Amino acid sequence: MKEKTKRTGRIPKLNPKTHCVMVRFDDEEHARFLTMYEQSGEYAKAVFIKARVFGGGKFKVIKVDNSFPEYYAKLSDLNAQFRRIGVNYNQVVRELKSHFSEKKAMALLYKLEETTRQLVAVSREIIALTQKFEHEWLRTSM
Are the C-beta atoms of 72 and 127 separated by less than 8 Å? Predict the structure, then answer.
């Protein structure tokens, strides 16, 4: 009679990792290690350590500053919101003129004018912050 051998479970690896090496750090060394690991962009600490040990060459950390494109994306979104406010502003004035008495419409327009002044102040603040940001970013990127 033939004997059936049916294997179940995980397929054995061709090159299993069987040796473990352990390193102990004090608090300061561990903090430096974690900083280097995070800056490396590796997905696992073991991969990072292997690359450092067997990599041979210099260890390079490339930092990508995503704040500049992110800031401009948010600034573009803010400009789109200002355009929508402008469209709504025109619609509100038109509706005030057609549905309310002149006295009531003037009172409501006064409130709208005050809010518009606040928007202009915020807009000027945004422009000043953008100029400051561009100055700082251009200085650090060169």
Answer: no
The token pair that represents 119 in the structure block: 């928007």
pLDDT for the residue numbered 26: 92
Write down how long the chain is: 142
Residues 75, 130: Cα–Cα separation, whole Å: 9
Residue carrying structure tokens 């690991």: 37
List the chain residues with pLDDT less than 50. Answer: none
- Residues 62, 68: Cα–Cα separation, whole Å: 16
pLDDT at 61: 62
Map tokens 């422009």 to a residue. Answer: 127
Q: Please list, in sequence order, all residues whose beta carbon lies within 8 angstroms of the beta carbon of residue 100, skipping any fewer than 6 positions away.
A: 108
Alpha carbon distance 114, 109 (integer Å) = 9
Segment holding 38, helix H or strand E: helix 27-40
pLDDT at 18: 87
Q: What is the pTM of this model?
A: 0.43
- pLDDT at site 5: 67
Burial-class residue 10 by CB neighbours within 10 Å (0-12, 13-18, 19+): exposed
The structure tokens 């002044």 sit at 117
